[in-house]
Specification:
The structure is a single chain. The chain is an alpha+beta fold. It has 3 domains: about 160 residues, Jelly Rolls (Sandwich), CATH 2.60.120.810; about 50 residues, Arc Repressor Mutant, subunit A, CATH 1.10.10; about 55 residues, Orthogonal Bundle (Arc Repressor Mutant, subunit A). About 45% of the residues lie in helices and about 20% in strands. The strands form 2 sheets. A 6-stranded antiparallel sheet has the order 1-2-9-4-7-10, with helices on one face. Strand 5 and strand 6 form a beta hairpin.
């Protein structure tokens, strides 16, 4: 496996960059240890297993958290390539963000994070996408990274306070993981909930409840979010016509793609493409 870590920006408090790897064979495992507290923004679909926890499917829909020293394995799901944006966060800043939700964080400064992943808003995803397209000034980047980390921590705790307890037992996590992987592998298709449940091997109602409880959205909402956030990366990375990008993510009508894209991000696809390439962090006007 070939891998490369590129640091995009260093500020007085943070270090942000992109990790890329290319597997030699499908399903090849990558073993690693987090050398700092990390907030990771997957740019591809990856199966991650942190030590002492079960495997999770990580996608551009949710952020992933690592304590310093965490041993983990990763494997790419949809291709041989793995791309992840990472933010190294000092223990003091992480503790400050967690303390309003959990005052006990000061008693576990070496292991402040008690969860693996959490929700991520479209605004946060778009702002962090900027880091992967062109490097901002350190002062500007520091503000954005601090705001993003705070928002992601707040979201993780808010989700856990609202999440209903499971009524279905220990297999729910596996059902949801398999459903995420199936949707990710067929991102350009419109597979219905009934078919997803059949392939996963559970009833439609069971999967619907378990998926919404674990991921915070329905399978349909998850697919739409994954499609459009993945499209953001394509807009920045390739020069293909927007209609071709839309088609690749299952949109037969480019106009409908543009409508849904603007509804989610508040900007037209053409505007996002120009923003990411021009390096405008907070674009004025929509």
């Amino acid at each position: 496996m070939r891998s490369q870590t590129t640091v995009l920006v260093r500020t007085n408090h943070f270090e942000a960059g992109v990790f890329r790897s290319l597997s030699r064979t499908p399903g090849e495992l990558r073993h690693s240890v987090a050398r700092s507290h990390l907030v990771a923004i997957p740019r591809s679909v990856i199966a991650v297993t942190q030590a002492g926890r079960g495997e999770r499917i990580t996608t551009p829909v949710r952020a992933v958290f690592y304590n310093k020293g965490c041993h983990y394995t990763a494997r790419s799901v949809c291709s041989l390539r793995e791309t992840t944006l990472f933010i190294r966060v000092p223990a003091s800043i992480l503790a400050d963000a967690i303390r309003p939700h959990d005052p006990r964080v000061d008693a576990r400064r070496d292991q402040p994070l008690t969860f693996v992943d959490g929700p991520m808003s479209d605004a946060t995803y778009l702002a962090l996408s900027r880091l992967a397209s062109e490097v901002p000034r350190p002062g500007e980047a520091d503000d954005v990274l601090r705001e993003a980390v705070g928002s992601l921590i707040d979201g993780a705790y808010a989700e856990r306070s609202l999440r209903a307890p499971s009524r279905h037992g220990v297999n729910d996590e596996d059902y949801v993981r398999r459903a995420q992987e199936l949707i990710s592998l067929s991102i350009g298709e419109s597979i219905g909930l009934d078919e997803i449940a059949r392939r996963v091997g559970v009833s439609t109602s069971h999967l619907c409840q378990a998926f919404k409880r674990r991921i915070g959205m329905t399978t349909q909402e998850f697919r739409a979010c994954l499609r459009l956030r993945s499209a953001v990366d394509q807009l920045a990375a390739v020069r293909a016509p927007i209609g071709a990008i839309a088609s690749g993510f299952g949109y037969s009508d480019p106009a409908q793609f543009a409508i849904e894209f603007r509804r989610r991000f508040g900007l037209a696809p053409e505007r996002v493409r120009s923003v990411l390439r021009a390096g405008v962090l907070h674009p004025a006007g929509r």
